[in-house]
Amino acid sequence: MALIKTVRGKTPSIHESSYLAENATVIGDVHIGEHCSIWFNTVIRGDVNSINIGDKVNIQDGVVVHCTFKKSVTVIGNKVSIGHNAIIHGCEIRDKVLIGMGAIVMDNSIIESEVIIAAGTVVPENSVLRSGGVYAGIPARRIKDLDSKLLEGEIERIAENYLKYASWYK
């Protein structure tokens, strides 16, 4: 069973339809919406500020989601896929976003809807990644426009696949 821990009087709120791996950790002021999946060795730590996760979000193995004390909350929209070992810190990620493996998204950044962030990309503090783009590099830069093939073939496909994968574990 996942470690669900109350800190500073705040207990995580997790919708009953969501799946949490047995060694996932969810702490403090965290809200997880419907049909989400939180995978192995993931840590979602709302001890110093709040973390709000929408519906149909998959947070893959080894991801760390955190925020900044008295400064930056973390908000994750709907149909977001966060790849293995990514770090999400004190930022806003809107709907239909794919964040590649090992990417880092830093404080006060805004990732608009329908964005792909390539594996290993670093999104510096206070960045805004505009809708409809694919971003890569250190620091992140727009490398191409997001077309319908990428939107459906990557963002939508991965989000749907993780709904299926979670059903195998429930």
Would you write up a description of this structure?
The chain is globular, with a radius of gyration of 15 Å. It contains 1 helix and 20 strands. The strands form 2 sheets. Strands 1, 2, 4, 6, 8, 9, 11, 12, 14, 15, 17 and 18 form a 12-stranded parallel sheet that branches. An 8-stranded mixed sheet has the order 3-5-7-10-13-16-19-20. The model has no long low-confidence stretch (mean pLDDT 97). It has one helix at residues 148-169, and strands spanning 3-5, 13-14, 19-20, 25-32, 37-38, 43-53, 58-59, 64-66, 74-76, 81-82, 87-89, 92-93, 97-99, 104-105, 110-111, 115-117, 122-123, 128-129, 133-136, 141-145. Helix content is 13%, strand content 39%. The chain starts with a strand and ends with a helix. The protein has 170 residues and is mainly beta.
Largest sheet: 12 strands, parallel
Q: In what range is the share of β-strand residues?
A: 35-45%
In the predicted model, the low-confidence regions spanning at least 5 consecutive residues are none
Number of helices: 1
* Separation, N- and C-terminal Cα atoms: 12 Å
Mean pLDDT: 97
What is the global morphology? globular
Give the % helix.
Answer: 10-25%
Query: C-alpha Rg, in Å?
Result: 15 Å
How many beta-strand runs?
Answer: 20
Q: Structural class given helices, strands, pairing?
A: mainly beta
| Run of helices and strands | EEEEEEEEEEEEEEEEEEEEH
